[in-house]
């Protein structure tokens, strides 16, 4: 998740720089050789915006999926090939292991809650920073697009920050 947030912030910085330039300005110096392709600000804005939107969608959905993943307690032994007496001893050992594992599950749950709050606030911050830059990119692109940031902020609030 941290890598996605960093990638999102870096892409946001690139987009912020691009939207402050004239749309037709070339991003690379033109050369007199034939067949060179001039990458301009408009194409850069479009690419950076698509990349940022993909990162934001992926980040929000990954956080939601991570939080909805149930914890499984899977016993490690195979009991079908053993004798009945050995199976009874193994059941007792497995039940002891489960009882001993519960405190660590509580610790895992506490860690999960702490990380959830931190990651959700970082993701919310990135979405809030991206909102005006994406709106400004609409003016560079010359057309109004769908504001994914508001959709993702609403989803984040409904599913993570204030779940019912």
Classify the secondary structure makeup into a structural class.
Answer: mainly alpha
Number of helices: 4
The low-confidence runs, each spanning 5 or more residues with pLDDT under 50, are 72-82
Q: What summary fits the major beta sheet?
A: none
Helix content: over 70%
**Count of domain modules:** 1
The tally of beta strands, per DSSP, is 0
Write down the overall geometry: elongated
N→C terminal distance: 24 Å
Strand content: under 5%
Q: What is the N-to-C succession of helices and strands?
A: HHHH
pLDDT averaged over residues: 78
Radius of gyration: 25 Å
Give the helices and strands, then pairings:
Blueprint: H1 2-19, H2 41-68, H3 84-141, H4 148-161
Structure description:
The structure is a single chain. With 164 residues, the chain is mostly helical. Helix content is 72%, strand content 0%. The chain has 4 helices and no strands. The two termini are 24 Å apart. The chain has one domain.
What's the short version?
The protein contains four helices and no strands. It is mainly alpha-helical and 164 residues long.
Provide keyphrases for this structure.
mainly alpha, 164 residues, 4 helices, single chain
């Amino acid at each position: 998740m941290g890598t996605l947030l960093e990638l999102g912030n870096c892409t946001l910085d690139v987009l912020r720089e691009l939207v402050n330039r004239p749309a037709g300005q070339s991003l690379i110096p033109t050369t007199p050789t034939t067949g060179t392709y001039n990458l301009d600000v408009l194409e850069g804005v479009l690419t950076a915006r698509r990349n940022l939107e993909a990162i934001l969608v992926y980040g929000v959905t990954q956080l939601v999926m991570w939080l909805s993943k149930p914890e499984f307690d899977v016993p490690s032994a195979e009991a079908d090939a053993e004798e009945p007496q050995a199976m009874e001893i193994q059941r007792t050992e497995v039940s002891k292991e489960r009882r001993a594992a519960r405190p660590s599950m509580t610790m895992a749950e506490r860690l999960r809650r702490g990380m959830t709050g931190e990651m959700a606030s970082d993701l919310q911050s990135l979405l809030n920073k991206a909102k005006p830059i994406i709106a400004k990119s609409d003016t560079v692109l010359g057309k109004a697009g769908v504001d994914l940031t508001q959709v993702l902020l609403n989803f984040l609030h409904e599913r993570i920050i204030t779940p019912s």
